[in-house]
């Protein structure tokens, strides 16, 4: 009796889980489907789900009209570039705060986080003007610098939480083993910190890849990443849903694959601090 | 070689003084146990010796050299932690040999020593496992192996057995005692468990609120506690304390009688009392007795007594083994 009840319960939960998953995934599925429709089918009412004339012409048009690979390259450069530069700054910072905290550590951390509470649009004009004067508009370097600074609070927080989870006892044990500070970092701390560093990089690459506000406002062509590539399909000449969908599918494909391959690290990254 | 001498060692965290000043001599090769209630500063004192905390004042002299300002890594001591603190990313073999490897010892020497230690600790079959694949007792053994393989001047143990279950604790306690005797290395062992202290120590240091209450051999502390605190802390069940009119005939403010030094009889001489509870352990019986002018008396009787709750009894303390204390709680000479 109880056994049957719990089986029914499990089935219900599974069903609800799949339903929720499907709802969340539906927009992406719809986008992928639309990218294989003709522009006419993409607009049709009622919408056509699977029974339409499948075509790949949108992809051909998209590739013809704009250089997809150039945008991919810009996205890669900006996303990985900004995350790597911010890691160079964040690892020592988080390290110091986790292992040698002072009275001000907590305040510093909160202050850093507070900078993320300001809407970016509030500083758009000043930053635009500064970038114009420095000649950084539409450059990869300019975007890397900006996204790196924007990422830093999150990156430092994530790393700090990971480093905090490394038990102090193990560091003390290595000291009792006669190991000096440099080798302690290299042989004891680094191997234990590596998974945390990896998921921080991963999550922030994805955030940077998807960042649309600054990339759209500060680039036009030369440094335009995939976000700008998508946006170029919602143009004043009218919306081309099928082509927009094809462009979007192409834009999210690389990061989707990356995310799929690194699911476990990502989940750990997304719930950071939540589980001990 | 490993004699340790503390001279006026002080420790304060901010404005809170944890250890107001400790002087202590630990001779080479002895097994010294720091014991006291939680928060008494015993772990802090151990960490000061280890170098994991900086002293606020005083000197720590190891083999004639003041090490108070040396980092932990350079003091030549090794430590076993309560949490084991093994390197999670290394195999048992690497965990044990890590210190030697980092000290630049030749590879074959490291292997030989790790093999020898793992033989002694019955770890040979686990050498290629990671700490996560071991049980608590095995992890503790690895931690001990890591400590002894470096042949340190002294071992420091910080409540090493408190994460183990009762049976394993007894077994590991015996192993640690045996190991220390065979290596004859100076050992400082911190515990809150007075049974561990009594069974392991050559010398017990009883700490309370950062102060040394008494230093001595286990049986010396049992037989001649210097004050009420030590009298109450050493021995299980706890010593009975009786003050006031009942203590006056003994010429003391308070008298202390251990449960095993009270004769309980149905009729005879002594204080009157009523049994409130009886615990029958087979070998012993613990009796909890309500007696006027006391906070209750615990008595221990050998074997099985036919006493039940509610029975009226007479309590006769053994005068030769009654401890006398003055109003300040200091022991009076008998």
How would you summarize what this structure contains?
The complex is a heterodimer of chains A (276) and B (334). Chain A contains 13 helices and two strands, in the order H-H-H-H-H-H-H-H-H-H-H-E-E-H-H.
Commentary on this structure:
- The complex is a heterodimer of chains A (276) and B (334).
- Chain A is an all-alpha fold and 276 residues long.
- Chain A has 2 domains: 2-57, no CATH class; 65-270, MetI-like fold, CATH 1.10.3720.
- Chain A contains 13 helices and 2 strands.
- Chain A is globular, with a radius of gyration of 23 Å.
- Mean pLDDT of chain A is 84; it is low at 272-276.
- Chain B has 2 domains: 4-231, Rossmann fold (3-Layer(aba) Sandwich), CATH 3.40.50; 237-332, OB fold (Dihydrolipoamide Acetyltransferase, E2P) (Beta Barrel).
- The longest helix of chain B is centred in the middle third of the chain and has 18 residues, at 166-183.
- The model of chain B has no long low-confidence stretch (mean pLDDT 91).
- Chains A and B meet through helix 8 and helix 9 of A and strand 6, helix 2 and helix 4 of B.
Please give the structural blueprint.
The complex is a heterodimer of chains A (276) and B (334).
Chain A: H1 2-35, H2 39-43, H3 57-65, H4 68-99, H5 105-114, H6 124-134, H7 140-165, H8 168-176, H9 181-210, H10 213-218, H11 226-231, E1 234-235, E2 238-239, H12 241-261, H13 263-270
Antiparallel strand pairs in A: 1-2
Helix pairs in contact in A: 1-12, 3-12, 4-7, 4-9, 7-9, 8-9, 9-13
Chain B: E1 4-13, E2 16-26, E3 31-35, H1 42-50, E4 57-62, E5 65-66, E6 77-80, H2 92-102, H3 107-120, H4 136-148, E7 154-158, H5 166-183, E8 186-191, H6 194-200, E9 203-208, E10 211-216, H7 218-223, H8 228-233, E11 240-243, E12 254-257, E13 262-265, E14 271-280, E15 284-290, E16 297-302, E17 312-317, E18 323-325, E19 331-332
Parallel strand pairs in B: 3-8, 3-9, 6-7, 7-8
Antiparallel strand pairs in B: 1-2, 1-4, 4-5, 9-10, 11-12, 12-18, 13-17, 14-15, 14-17, 15-16, 18-19
Helix pairs in contact in B: 2-3, 2-4
């Amino acid at each position: 009796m109880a056994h049957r009840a719990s089986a029914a319960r499990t089935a219900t939960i599974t069903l609800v889980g799949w339903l929720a998953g499907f709802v969340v995934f539906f927009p992406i599925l719809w986008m992928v489907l639309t990218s294989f429709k003709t522009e006419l089918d993409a607009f049709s009412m009622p919408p056509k789900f699977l029974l339409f004339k499948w075509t790949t012409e949108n992809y051909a048009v998209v590739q013809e009209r704009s250089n997809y690979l150039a945008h991919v390259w810009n996205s890669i450069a900006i996303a990985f570039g900004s995350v790597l530069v911010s890691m160079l700054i964040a690892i020592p910072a988080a390290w110091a705060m986790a292992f040698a905290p002072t009275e001000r550590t907590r305040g510093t951390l909160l202050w850093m986080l507070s900078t993320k509470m300001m809407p970016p649009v509030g500083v758009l004009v000043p930053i635009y003007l500064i970038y114009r004067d420095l000649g950084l508009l539409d450059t990869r370097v300019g975007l890397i610098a900006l996204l790196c600074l924007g990422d830093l609070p999150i990156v430092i927080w994530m790393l700090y939480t990971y480093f905090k989870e490394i038990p102090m006892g193990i560091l003390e044990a290595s000291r009792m083993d006669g190991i000096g500070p440099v080798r302690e970092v290299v042989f004891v701390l680094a191997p234990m910190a590596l998974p945390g560093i990896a998921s921080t990089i991963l999550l922030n690459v994805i955030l940077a890849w998807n960042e649309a506000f600054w990339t759209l406002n500060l680039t036009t062509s030369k440094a335009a990443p995939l976000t700008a590539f998508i946006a170029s399909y919602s143009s004043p000449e009218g919306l081309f849903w099928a082509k927009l969908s094809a462009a979007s599918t192409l834009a999210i494909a690389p990061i989707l694959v990356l995310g799929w391959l690194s699911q476990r690290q990502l989940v750990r990254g997304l719930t950071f601090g939540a589980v001990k | 070689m490993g004699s340790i001498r503390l001279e006026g060692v002080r420790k304060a965290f901010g404005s809170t003084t944890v250890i107001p000043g400790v002087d202590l001599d630990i001779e080479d090769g002895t097994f010294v146990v720091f014991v006291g209630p939680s928060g008494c500063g015993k772990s802090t004192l151990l960490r000061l010796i280890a170098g994991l905390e900086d002293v606020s004042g005083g000197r720590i002299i190891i083999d004639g050299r003041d090490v108070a300002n040396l980092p932990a890594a350079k003091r030549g001591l090794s430590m076993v932690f309560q949490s084991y603190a093994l390197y999670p990313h290394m195999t048992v073999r690497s965990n044990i040999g890590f210190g030697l490897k980092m000290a630049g010892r030749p590879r074959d020497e490291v292997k030989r020593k790790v093999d020898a230690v793992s033989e002694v600790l019955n770890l040979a079959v686990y050498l290629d496992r990671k700490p996560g694949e071991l049980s608590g007792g095995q992890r503790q053994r690895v931690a001990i192996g890591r400590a002894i393989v470096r042949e340190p001047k002294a071992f420091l143990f910080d409540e090493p057995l408190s994460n183990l279950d009762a049976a394993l604790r007894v077994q590991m306690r015996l192993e640690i005692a045996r190991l220390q005797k065979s290596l004859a290395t100076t050992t400082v062992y911190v515990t809150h468990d007075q049974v561990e202290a009594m069974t392991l120590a050559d010398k017990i240091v009883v700490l309370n609120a950062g102060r040394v209450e008494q230093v001595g051999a286990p049986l010396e502390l049992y037989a001649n506690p210097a004050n009420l605190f030590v009298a109450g802390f050493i021995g299980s069940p706890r010593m009975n304390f009786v003050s006031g009119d009942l203590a006056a005939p003994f010429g003391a403010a308070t008298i202390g009688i251990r449960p095993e030094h009270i004769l309980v009889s149905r009729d005879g001489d002594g204080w009157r009392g009523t049994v409130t509870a009886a615990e029958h352990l087979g070998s012993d019986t613990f009796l909890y007795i309500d007696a006027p002018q006391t906070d209750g008396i615990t008595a221990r009787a050998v074997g099985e007594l036919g006493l039940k709750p509610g029975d009226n009894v007479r309590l006769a303390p053994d005068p030769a083994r009654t401890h006398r204390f003055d109003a300040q709680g200091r022991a009076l000479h008998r």
